[in-house]
Amino acid sequence: MKKFIETVKNIWSIEELRNKILITLSFMVIYRFAAQVTLPGLDGKVIADAMNNKATGGNGIVDIINMFTGGGFSRASVMALGVMPYISASIVVQLMGIAIPYLQKLQKDGESGRKKITQITRWLTIAITLVQGPAYLASLPSLGIPANAFMLGQGGMFWITSMVLLTTGSIFAMWLGEKITDKGIGNGISLLIMIGIIAGFPSSFAQEFLSKTNTGGAGGIMMILIEIIVWLAVILACVYLVTAIRKVAVQYARKTVAGTVRDVAGARQYIPLKLNSAGVMPIIFAQAIMFVPSALTSASFTSDGVKRIAGYFSDFTGVGYNVLFAVLIIVFSYFYTAITIPTNKMADDLKRSGGFIPGIRPGKETGDLLDRILSLITFPGSIFLALLAILPAFVVKFGVQQNWAMFYGGTSLLIMVGVAIDTIQQINSHLLNRHYDGLMKTGSKRKSVA
User: Fold this and answer.
1) Tens digit of each residue's pLDDT (9 = 90 or more) over 395-414
2) Where do transmembrane segments lie in this chain (predicted)?
3) How far apart are CA 324 and CA 426, in angstroms?
């Protein structure tokens, strides 16, 4: 503990790192403050009372969206859509980069190409917001917003002003994320999503605690302790999933060390291939498809037979929903890994740098080997990812409230763990550059080597 405190002091003593952390915290506070502002024409107090009186464990899909926006989605906030349109636009641009030569060229143009892709993503974010905004406003009554909350009705003026503010809110959230990435400690969009998820943690745990400890509650304090232990075990499993890698040994026949006249013969390194190279993207893709059955059940043009089938696959805790959800995650894990990990390019880069995998010819054979290894490790990684994604549904079956169960797996927990690890690595890099030990090691100042 003493070493940890000393490390925190070292972090605060580095002016550049201190400023980055303060900027990041300031922007996160601004984002959370904006998420509390209700759309004009709506009575925030009436909405808050309706949300408080609403029974826990409602629509699972809506709860998931609401978690990503820090409660702004169900509160009808100006940040109700948050960074979700930007994430959708980023995914679309990334997928379009596979098929559109112009985007492929921009990806290879370095910094100038990256700026153009960023600009395309921004404009696409606005377009997506203009589509999602009206759909969101039309669904406000079904989200539990009572009729008396609309102080000025739902006329044209309400729609125009709300659309302007929803679009502005998404653009503002995108701008905050980019500023955190540029001026703060990085991962701006991910940090905004994480802070929105964490915002619902205290109330969810408090509701679960009260339900177990109040008179007539099942389990009492002992059950709460068991739930916390299981939750920590799931977090540990997430950490292993995020950090697990398969090391592929690489050897360099001859390598000149810069600044010296000696050569290193047979220098040995490795290529790290992640067990879960796709991250949380397969869950995001799968959830996007799982929204379809829910939409069909509420659509007026859907027949009764289709509604029954769609209802079977839209139950968050149902067998059909979770089996289909798990299968989609496994499929998208392979799909996203295949399009984002260019094994042939890795093999070509390795060949140009004079490296090779022992016993394997450089070039095509190396690329085939890397592709085969990646396919083999993606299978257990995708299975593990699917189990984590559907774990909240199993937890609910054991009597845990749905809002608290959301923190037992799925996208929310993986995002929190992944962003936390990335942030620690960013801080570690600053400490090591200033000759301090990393955050997870000791807090002593390291001697610089001349």
Assistant:
1) 888 888 888 888 887 777 88
2) 21-39, 83-103, 123-145, 157-177, 184-201, 221-245, 278-299, 319-341, 373-394, 406-424
3) 37
Is residue 89 within 8 A of residue 128, CB to CB? The reply is: yes
Q: What is each CA distance from 131 to 85, 93, 144, 167, 194, in whole angstroms?
A: 10, 17, 21, 10, 25
**Same CATH fold assignment for domains 1-211 and 219-398:** yes
Dihedral sign computed on CA atoms, order 230, 236, 239, 243: negative
Of 150, 186, 413, 408, nearest in space to 279 by CA: 413
Fold of 219-398: Preprotein translocase SecY subunit (1.10.3370)
pLDDT tens, 382-399? Answer: 999 899 888 888 888 888
Pairing assessment for the beta strands 263-274 and 245-256 based on DSSP bridges: antiparallel
Burial of 445 (0-12, 13-18, 19+ CB in 10 A): middle
Per CATH, domain 1-211 is 3.40.50.880: no
Domain boundaries, the chain: 1-211, 219-398
Question: Residue 241: pLDDT band by 50, 70, 90 thresholds?
Answer: confident
Neighbour count for residue 303 (Cβ, 10 Å): 9
Per the structure block, which two tokens stand in for 86? 């930007």
Tokens of 55: 């029974």
- DSSP lists the bridge partners of residue 355 as 252
| Confidence band of 258 (pLDDT split at 50, 70, 90) | low
pTM of the model: 0.77
**Do residues 169 and 79 make contact, with C-beta atoms less than 8 angstroms apart?**
yes
Dig out the tokens for 236 from the structure. Answer: 């540990």
Say if CB 418 and CB 197 are below 8 A apart: no
